[in-house]
Each structure stands twice: as structure tokens, then as C-alpha cells.
Amino acid sequence: MNNLVWLRSDLRIYDNPALFNAMSKGPTVAVYCLTNEQWDKHGLSQIKRRLIVDHLFELEEQLAKLNVPLIVIDCALFLNVPQSLAGLCRDLNITNMYYNHEYEVNEKSCSDSVVNQLAQLNIECFGYHDQCIVAPGSILNGSRECYKVFSAYAKNWQQNVSALARPLYYKPEPQAELALTSDISCLKNYLIDVDIQTKDQWPIGEDEAHDRLNEFIEQNVSDYHNSRDFPDLDATSHLSVYLALGVITTRQCLQAMVSHSQQDVELLFEVSGDGARCWLNELVWREFYRHILVAFPKVCKGKPFKDLTDNLPWKADNQDFQAWCEGRTGVPIVDAAMRQLNTTGWMHNRLRMVVAMFLTKHLQIDWRLGEAYFYGKLADADLASNNGGWQWSASTGVDAVPYFRIFNPYRQAERFDPKGSFVRKYVKELASIQGKAIHQPSKALAMQHGYPTPIVDLKIAAEHTKALFKNLNVSPAVQGIND
């Protein structure tokens, strides 16, 4: 035995740099370390935990076709991983270990500890960037510093992606059979029941992920810029769960667009239709937030990107927060979105911004509570994207929405759910109301249908929030908007 590949957020056999390079260098065995107590500490959603386990069962079958045994170890916490992997390496006479980088503070620390532990056994470790098309730290401004404005980062990224993009890795060829069999027996202890039908919502496996990718590009991407903001339409890619699990990569998404458009990557952003450019821009946003995570690890530690905003008098957990969590704020589009999250483990991206702004800008509740609640519910829980999105909405983050721009949820609902179809689906008590009244029912109408009245006056709350930010001496560049 020569090589060990340590799997984490990379549950796939296609475009897996660590797996490909390990198998190209000799006999390889794969390992995954379960860390349930660490997941508890991080507040990881139950549905994502179950999806990880389901994908590990599937991955074991796919690795078996390559004659690569999968060993699953129950480590409980990250701090136990280095010793567990060292023991496995000794037992299997491992000489080289291959892994893909993770960027969060605790995960990176775990990687460093593993590398140091294995170095004591004279085991060489090889790390690869797989989560990004362009490795974090490769795109820098003129001062050789981390970009803090997305538009400038995106422009540089687009101009240099052809030269800086990591390779795309094919599925490795099967190796000769080893005198070792897989051991995934401890997975049975992680077969938790969740209320959501995960297999129906997100079918398991790489093939399913690629089917979704190809179907989206062929059928929906051309109109993505027009339809992506309407939550009652099935107009988005629904790939976020597979990306968060590492079942598919952004590099594969980019390549799929290159193949579909039959354009070189450097021309893709110039000649593609508006829908394709809009969707590709979402991939760059994903990379940007990882770029920030690496350059400013404080955002992993509950700190705002803009230090000054930590002085805001955010409210703590209270009855309003519970009403928001449970979807009973009296604002139909907010409640519909939260009920979608609670019942499906997913929320439409436009609505993620609407409910985040409502929590932070209208209820003045600490964005960190909202971030944690999302992380504990989302099947696509991803620290970089989740934190980036919440800090954007709260105006505490990098290149965030200006504090004076506050979404009015009623206007958002009328604009993006004009017929009230989405609200009717999730706020059943209002389903019989016709016209615009469904988005802002009168007190009498709400009471008639057993629906709560709004827990906050939006106009007063928005003005109060603007005043709080102004007191931080944050000077707006333009006049305030309440759209």
C-alpha cells in the first residue's frame, strides 16, 4: 500500500484532484472521518448530515468500481482526526497522503495538524485546490492585496481565468484490486431520520448532479437573468446542495458552459447570452466569498468584515426572532420563505436576501443569529456563502449592500411573486385571498384567516436602522433608498 486519499467536502470521483493524483502515483485507499460532535459545535443542519452519509454510501460503490476501498472512521471531533489518520497510515504502510484544501478556520487547522502528524511518520502530504476554479489568493489588486469589491474582483477573474483556472480532472482508471476491503460500518450510526424527503428533493449521486447541470444549461440558463428572482418558478439550477457536498464542482459547471456555448473560456463572458453571464457570475460570487474567507479568517469566527459595525446595538434572541424562525411575522412573503426553509431545507436566493434584511434591518436582530439558523436548516449549508450572504444583507460585510438600501418585503413580494403563487403554497391560511391583498392583508382580513398581524412597522423600523448606522459615522455616498 502506498497512497491514502483523505476525503471531506469532495464526495465524488470525477474532477477530484486528490483522488486522481493519488491513483496516478500507485495503489490507493480512501478515508473519510465522521465528526458528529464537531458538526454539533458548528451547528450543521441535520439534513446535510444525512446527505453526507447517503452520498458516502453511494461513493463507496463508485470507488469500488475503481478498486479503491473506502474506510470510514468515527472521530467525533477534528482534534481526533490527526491521530486516527496516523494510525491508519501505520496499519496500511502509507507513504503518501493526498487531500483537497478546505478554507474555514477549523477545517484548515485540522488539515495542518494532520500534515504535521503524518510528517512525523515520514509521510509526504499533497494538497490541492478543488473548491474554486481559481485558487484563493491568486486574484489580487494592483497593490497585491485581496480585493474587497466584487465587481473589480470579477473583472480580474474573468480576464485571467483562462490562465489561472485549475485543471479539470477526469475519472481515474481502475487500479489493480487490493487485498483490502471497504469498511463503512460506522455509517449506520449516522442514519438519522429527517422530516424532509432528501432522496426526492436531492437525488443521491454524481450522475444526478450532472443531469441537473446539463438540464439547466440546456433548458433554463438562457432566460436565467429574467426568471431567477421569481420563487414560484423552477428557474434556478438547484445545484447548491451538490456544490456544498462536493458532489459536483464549479470547475465542472464552467466546463459545461464552455461545451454548451462552444466558446473558449476567455470569450465566455463576452459572447454568452445575458442568462449565461448572469449564472456564471454566481459562480464567481461563490469564489469571491472563499477568497474573503481565506484572506480574512475573522469572518469564520463570528466577526463582521467591517469592524465598526460590531458596535451596532443588535437585539439578541427574543420573541421576534422566534416568530421569524417559525414563519409567523405577519409579513406573508417572509413567512412563506421561512416555511419553505423549515419544510424543505432550502430557500430561494432572492428570498434569502429578503428575510435576512427583514431580520437585520426591520427587527434589528443580530445577523449572526440568522446566519446560525440558516446553517442549522439548509441542505446546502456552506460557511463562506452563508456568511457572505448574511453580512451582505446586514451591511456588515465585504462589498455589502449600503445600509440605507433596505428591501421593502411587500414591494419585493409584489414584484417577484405578482400572483401570490409562492405565498399561497406555503402560507396556507392565506391561500383563498385573491389579488395584491395576499401580500399585505388588512388587520381584519388577517384575523379572519387566522393569520398574525405584522410584528413591526416597516417604515419606522427602517428609519431607526438607518439612524443606528449613521451613528457609526458611516457616510452614505448617495441618498437613501427604500426599495
TrEMBL record:
<comment type="similarity">
    <text>Belongs to the DNA photolyase family.</text>
</comment>
<dbReference type="GO" id="GO:0009416">
    <property type="term" value="P:response to light stimulus"/>
</dbReference>
<feature type="binding site">
    <location>
        <begin position="236"/>
        <end position="240"/>
    </location>
    <ligand>
        <name>FAD</name>
    </ligand>
</feature>
<dbReference type="InterPro" id="IPR006050">
    <property type="entry name" value="DNA_photolyase_N"/>
</dbReference>
<dbReference type="GO" id="GO:0003677">
    <property type="term" value="F:DNA binding"/>
</dbReference>
<dbReference type="Pfam" id="PF03441">
    <property type="entry name" value="FAD_binding_7"/>
</dbReference>
<keyword id="KW-0274">FAD</keyword>
<dbReference type="GO" id="GO:0071949">
    <property type="term" value="F:FAD binding"/>
</dbReference>
<feature type="binding site">
    <location>
        <begin position="380"/>
        <end position="382"/>
    </location>
    <ligand>
        <name>FAD</name>
    </ligand>
</feature>
<feature type="site" description="Electron transfer via tryptophanyl radical">
    <location>
        <position position="390"/>
    </location>
</feature>
<feature type="site" description="Electron transfer via tryptophanyl radical">
    <location>
        <position position="367"/>
    </location>
</feature>
<feature type="binding site">
    <location>
        <begin position="282"/>
        <end position="289"/>
    </location>
    <ligand>
        <name>FAD</name>
    </ligand>
</feature>
<dbReference type="InterPro" id="IPR018394">
    <property type="entry name" value="DNA_photolyase_1_CS_C"/>
</dbReference>
<feature type="site" description="Electron transfer via tryptophanyl radical">
    <location>
        <position position="314"/>
    </location>
</feature>
<dbReference type="Pfam" id="PF00875">
    <property type="entry name" value="DNA_photolyase"/>
</dbReference>
<dbReference type="InterPro" id="IPR036134">
    <property type="entry name" value="Crypto/Photolyase_FAD-like_sf"/>
</dbReference>
<dbReference type="GO" id="GO:0003904">
    <property type="term" value="F:deoxyribodipyrimidine photo-lyase activity"/>
</dbReference>
<comment type="similarity">
    <text>Belongs to the DNA photolyase class-1 family.</text>
</comment>
<protein>
    <recommendedName>
        <fullName>Deoxyribodipyrimidine photo-lyase</fullName>
        <ecNumber>4.1.99.3</ecNumber>
    </recommendedName>
</protein>
<keyword id="KW-0157">Chromophore</keyword>
<dbReference type="GO" id="GO:0000719">
    <property type="term" value="P:photoreactive repair"/>
</dbReference>
<feature type="binding site">
    <location>
        <position position="279"/>
    </location>
    <ligand>
        <name>FAD</name>
    </ligand>
</feature>
<dbReference type="InterPro" id="IPR005101">
    <property type="entry name" value="Cryptochr/Photolyase_FAD-bd"/>
</dbReference>
<keyword id="KW-0285">Flavoprotein</keyword>
<dbReference type="InterPro" id="IPR002081">
    <property type="entry name" value="Cryptochrome/DNA_photolyase_1"/>
</dbReference>
<dbReference type="InterPro" id="IPR036155">
    <property type="entry name" value="Crypto/Photolyase_N_sf"/>
</dbReference>
<feature type="domain" description="Photolyase/cryptochrome alpha/beta">
    <location>
        <begin position="1"/>
        <end position="133"/>
    </location>
</feature>
<comment type="function">
    <text>Involved in repair of UV radiation-induced DNA damage. Catalyzes the light-dependent monomerization (300-600 nm) of cyclobutyl pyrimidine dimers (in cis-syn configuration), which are formed between adjacent bases on the same DNA strand upon exposure to ultraviolet radiation.</text>
</comment>
<dbReference type="InterPro" id="IPR014729">
    <property type="entry name" value="Rossmann-like_a/b/a_fold"/>
</dbReference>
<feature type="binding site">
    <location>
        <position position="224"/>
    </location>
    <ligand>
        <name>FAD</name>
    </ligand>
</feature>
<keyword id="KW-0456">Lyase</keyword>
